[in-house]
Write a structure and sequence with these properties.
Order of helices and strands: EEEEEHHEEEE
Helix content: 10-25%
Structural class: mainly beta
Number of strands: 9
Radius of gyration: 14 Å
Largest sheet: 7 strands, antiparallel
Strand content: over 45%
Strand order of the largest sheet: 2-1-8-7-6-5-9
Length: 110
């Protein structure tokens, strides 16, 4: 698993990202349905190992993704579906978290 975070301040974007992305890749959801970039999935869990690595202020934001329906941005070569959610944290600041979901952590929303 891996996690990325982005922060936007006064129009400037900084990001950290790890992993390889295959733009034609697909993976499966918890029920065995095909997931690809552009579809919507419901986040049903997030790996506790990932949560343990987060800074205290990041944990509630990332945990709030559970139950959300989010668009899959990409599918990695390893079969993880990348989803992102953003939050406004000030008048000129936003933060975004991107999480790589394993098949067991998502369900396709049709």
């Amino acid at each position: 698993y891996f996690h990325t975070s982005k922060a936007r301040c006064n129009g400037q974007l900084s990001a950290t990202l790890g992993g390889l992305v295959n733009f034609g890749a697909t993976t499966l959801d918890a029920s065995g349905k095909i997931v690809r970039a552009g579809v919507k999935v419901r986040v049903i869990s997030i790996d506790p190992g990932l949560i343990a690595t987060l800074e205290p202020e990041e944990k509630p934001r990332v945990l709030s993704m559970i139950g959300e329906v989010l668009e899959v941005e990409e599918v990695t070569d390893s079969g993880y579906a990348m989803v992102e959610k953003g939050w406004r944290i000030g008048p000129d600041r936003s933060t975004f978290h991107t999480v790589a979901l394993a098949s067991t952590e998502m369900e396709l929303v049709e």
